[in-house]
Structures are given as C-alpha cells and as structure tokens.
Design a protein that fits this description.
- The chain is built from 18 helices and 20 strands.
- It has 524 residues and is of the alpha/beta class.
- The protein folds into three domains: 229 residues, Aldehyde Dehydrogenase, Chain A, domain 1 (3-Layer(aba) Sandwich); 197 residues, Aldehyde Dehydrogenase, Chain A, domain 2 (3-Layer(aba) Sandwich), CATH 3.40.309.10; 45 residues.
Length: 524
C-alpha cells in the first residue's frame, strides 16, 4: 500500500495528439529495414536478460505478484516472443506466393503484408511488462507505430517500462513517438479507439463489447482477448501427484490472476479422492504475503475490491452446498493491506449452478468436480460462456487429444498446462465470450498488417492479358458457347470431356466472328 507516484489521466484531445505524433513517426519507420528492426529486438533482449531483477521488482511492486511469478509471466514469455521474431518474423512478413488456378497459369499471384499505420492497445494490469511488450513487439516489427493505454491499476510500472523501449528505439535511430504509453480512465481509452487504425484490447467481455461499438464508428479491425474459464481435466489413468503439482501452478500462478488460468477442475471419479488429497496437501503448504520479501509462495490480489468479489463467489458456492476442504495461509502483512490478500482455497462438491463454475474468478481458487465418462466431461467443459483454453491429462495421449478436440476453445494443452503461450510461434486467443482474433505466431504478426492480393503477368511483356475475341465488346453471338466450352475445358471431370471442349474452343476461336449480339438486337 505504498505510494508509487502520480500520472495524469489524459483527456481525449491529448490522446489524439499522441496518435498524430505516432502517425508521423510511423511514416518514417515503415521504410526501416528488417536489419534495423532486428537490432532493436536484440538491444531489448540484452537489456531484459541483464535486468531481470529490476523488471520483476517493478512488476511485483505494482501488481503484488511474487518475483518467481513475474519471471515466469513477464520475462520468459517476452523473451520467447523476441526470439521467435528474430528467428522467423521477417519470413512471415515478406510477400507470400500463391497458386493461380487453371485459368490463370500465365499469372503470378502473391499476398503482400504492409503496416496498418498506428496500432492502439488497451491492456490489463495482471502482467504489466509483458502486456506492453506483447503488442508492441509485433506492431513495431511489422512497421507500425503503437499507442498503448495501460491499466489505471498498473500505470507506474507501465510508464517505467516505456523508458526501456524508448531507449532501445533511440539506439537504432528510430523516430521519436513511435511507441507511446498513455494513462487514464475510460474516456482515455475511448479517444484512443476513435483515433487509431487497429485496436487490440485485453480485458473483460463487457468492456470488450464497448470497444467493438466504438470501433464500428471508424470500421477499424479489432482483436479482443477477454479472459477465460479454462477447464483442467484429469482422467483416471494419470500420475496423480505429478498432475496435482501442475494443477496448483495453473490455479495459483500470480495469485490466480491469469487470463488463461485453470478455473474449473474436472477429475475422474476413480482418482477424485486421491487428487483432492494431493491438492489439499499442496495448498495447505502455500503462504501468501508481501512479494518482495522473498519468503512467500504467493503474492497479493492487485485490486482490493477484487478480494471481496472472490469471497462473494466462494460464499455463493457454499450457500449452494459446496465445501471448503483446504486453505493456505497469509503471512505477516500491514494492517492497511489485509484486504489485498486472498488465501489459496480448495472447494469440493461444486456444480454448474454455482457462479464460481460459470463466472471468471481471476483468483487463487480451485473448485474440483468429479466426472464419470469422457462424454460427460466434454459436456461439462463446454458448458461455459467462455472459450479461451483447456488442459487435458491422461495416460493415453490419444485419449487426451480426442477429448481436447471436442472442446470449444482457442487453446488446448495435452498433458500440460499453458505451455501454448510459451510457444510464441502459436496463435493465442479464444472464442465465445473470450473474444476473437489472435496474438502471437504468424496469425498475430500478420494481424498487424494490411493484407493485399496482387496478380501480375508471369512472362510480361511477352505474354499479356488479352480478352478472347468471342467475348470482346461488342460480344459475339457465340460468346456464351465459347464460355461454356472454356469452363468444360478447364474444369471438366474427365480428360475426354475436357479434350472435346478444347476442340470446340479452338474451333470457335478460328471462326470468322459472327455478327455481334448488339447488331442483332438492333436488326430485330
């Protein structure tokens, strides 16, 4: 609860001026070479590796996560993204050649990717370093500028991290104002949406819908990552102690404040008791406390009012028959910060009538429900308005894959949890109330680009596009017969039909053109 600093809530006209300056910078940066862009990434990567303690310390002080959680969620994910862009990014932004089809063999077809201009991003508070670097890296590497509105709950860290980016950009000779971080509340975000060429939003479904409505005024593309209620499925043929450790990490990482955190645990009835016993043992050993002391397993809840919401979800479940079987402990904390800590909690006898199993909790709670068959657990897992990710554990890889393939979500981990996000070559995003569009991977990188289809003559100027005589204006009387035969020639289902049609095409082309249809109409 220490005072960190003051930052202004920017007014709409101030936001629009920042976007104007970013647009000027982007016009220069769009002409930059990939060599210059890779140098920018290498400078960032070197700084991050050498200053991990500082970066994690800033994140911990602003959001309450432990240094270990900051390292996992902030440092490693960002380094993975930089490494992937250095390895493959340029390849996926170069023109991509495509086939032209039978009727266009004399043509070359390609897809070109060019920068949008100014990308806007409105990001959440839970991982302040990575949530800034994630959209920034893709936008800048693809030739855009970016203006990022950080959460009002993580403005101090966001503005500190901006200095790292600006210093690296200056070192490679990039124009000023290419990357901006702005602070403020709802009107600041609304002004950003109305000014940029694309918007990326990380937050709640309710605010995501408001972003979409605002973006519809200027018809800009939108990427929405709106959280999840991820299912963690445990079949009866697993190594229970091994999976229990992964489950605990999936639920308690960063005090459970993860978009892709494990929020619903479905465990087969044959191992339900042993799994619950293992989880209880782990959770009882976990202590929450001030993150920078280095003595605690789990940190704080970022927002004081969120602890109250977590307790409300627990109370609703208890009122409907659930039971708390274990809670972790809270260490020595200041009197003014008591409400910012929520002990890790294991709850059993849960069902889908409880808000805890339907609404995103975003906290260190493990509700565990038993199932009897694969068909039942698929139905349970899909009974959610969210669809971000899932994790399926089974001694049979094939069985786990089969279950995961039936779940309506954007991310699936087989005998693992959240490793998808560490693999930055993969797209990340969800369906249903979890949003749409993708971060990371080829899809996320190209989502920062205008996609243009280009067709040109393959052997120009020796072979040029020419309209066949029968369908030149004015169209000949046998124009449709020519077209009909041409379709049979190109797409007929067997070789003999195509050959017969080709003969007719050549016959029509060799004939003296009949009177055009327009002359016939006039004579009639």
């Amino acid at each position: 609860m220490k005072y960190l600093g003051y930052f202004p809530a920017l007014k709409p006209d101030e936001v629009k001026e920042r976007v104007v300056q970013a647009r000027k910078a982007q016009k220069i940066w769009a002409k930059s070479s990939f060599k210059q862009r890779r140098l920018f990434l290498r400078i960032l990567l070197k700084y991050i590796i050498e200053h991990q303690d500082l970066i994690c310390n800033i994140s911990s002080r602003d959001t309450g996560k432990t240094m270990v959680d900051a390292s996992l969620g902030e440092i490693m994910t960002t380094c993975e993204k930089i490494h992937w862009l250095l390895s493959e990014g340029e390849k996926w932004l170069k023109p991509e050649y495509r086939s032209c089809g039978r009727s266009m063999l004399h043509k070359v077809a390609k897809v070109e990717f060019s920068p949008f201009g100014v990308v806007g991003a409105i990001v959440s508070w839970n991982y302040p370093f990575h949530n800034i670097f994630n959209p920034m890296l893709a936008a800048v590497f693809s030739g855009n500028s970016i203006v990022i509105k950080v959460s009002e709950h993580a403005s101090w860290s966001g503005c500190f991290y901006l200095r790292i980016i600006q210093t690296a950009l200056a070192a490679v000779g990039a124009p000023e104002n290419l990357v901006e971080v702005i602070t403020g509340f709802a009107e600041t975000g609304e002004a950003l949406v109305s000014s940029v060429d694309k918007i990326i939003f990380v937050g709640s479904p309710g605010v995501g819908k408001k972003i979409m409505r605002s973006a519809s005024n200027t018809l800009i593309p939108v990427t929405l990552e709106l959280g999840g209620k991820d299912a963690f499925i445990v079949c009866e043929d697993v190594d229970v102690p091994h999976v229990a450790q992964i489950a605990a990490r999936g639920a308690l990482q960063s005090s459970g404040q993860n978009c892709a955190g494990a929020e619903r645990f479905y465990v087969h009835k044959d191992v339900y008791s042993s799994f619950v016993a293992e989880i209880v043992k782990i959770v009882k050993s976990v202590t929450a406390g001030p993150p920078l002391s280095g003595k605690y397993d789990m940190g704080a809840i970022c927002m004081q009012e969120h602890s109250e919401r977590l307790q409300y979800l627990v109370n609703d479940a208890l009122d409907k028959g659930a039971e708390i079987v274990a809670r972790g402990s809270v260490g020595n904390i200041g009197e003014g910060a008591v409400d910012q800590y929520f002990p890790p909690t294991v709850i059993v006898n849960v069902n889908h009538t409880m808000k805890l199993m339907q609404e995103e909790a975003f906290g260190p709670i493990l509700p565990i429900m038993k199932f009897s068959s694969d068909e039942e657990v698929v139905q349970l897992a899909n009974d959610s308005s969210y669809g971000l990710g899932c994790a399926v554990f089974s001694g049979s890889q094939r069985r786990a894959r089969h279950i995961a393939s039936q779940l309506h979500c954007g991310v699936a981990a087989i005998n693992d949890f959240a490793s998808n996000y560490m693999c930055q070559s993969l797209p990340f995003g969800g369906v249903k109330d979890s949003g749409f569009g993708r971060f990371a991977g080829i899809e996320g990188l190209r989502a920062c680009c205008l996609v243009k289809s280009v067709v040109e003559d393959r052997w120009w100027p020796f072979i040029k596009t020419k309209i066949p005589k029968p369908i030149q204006y004015p169209i000949a009387e046998n124009g449709f017969e020519f077209q009909e035969s041409l379709v049979h020639t190109l797409y007929g289902l067997n070789i003999w039909d195509r050959l017969r049609a080709l003969v007719n095409v050549l016959k029509i082309l060799s004939q003296q053109p009949p009177a055009p249809t327009s002359n016939r109409r006039r004579n009639d």
